[in-house]
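U., I forgot to send this yesterday:
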Amino acid sequence: MPSFATAMVLLSAYLLGSIPFGVILTRLGGAGDLRQIGSGNIGATNVLRTGRKGLAAATLILDGAKGGVAVLIAHHYWPDLAIAAGGAAFLGHLYPVWLKFHGGKGVATMLGVALALYWPAGLTFAVVWLAMLALTKRSSLGGISAAAAAPIAAAAGDRSDVVLLLMGMTLLLIWKHRANISRLLDGTEPRVGQGG
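Result:
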């Protein structure tokens, strides 16, 4: 595939991933600028702090869908670029050009990418995420644990082509959660439903 076409595919995936659905939905829903609420993060957990559960659920679904859709479109037309497109969409969510590269933490988008690339890894991600969230009531711990589980599931399924991407995404997700990790260690990380 010509390098220009490859660049356009990856740029398109990045731009899709960079759509800040949390910011858009809260503004359309009259909840204000999400970046000025709670933790200031653009993801579903912070949308929940507005008290709008429907908007939070929609943000979660759309942030996941944009990662999955980027992979599926690339896989349909340019199969060799599907994995790279997933990575580009994930980077778009973390570092969106529309928000001066200050984006989300990537949990829902990584789930969407994982489901589209290798559904058992995505399913493992979802199960671990929900289980840890139910046990601890801390979204950050659930997301970090789920991200760590996904490449292990891909390795167990002998999907070495997917493992490297998922490992890289996990490291970036952990980096984006570094403030949460500090709060988890000192016992000040809020539970889901509390202020951020």
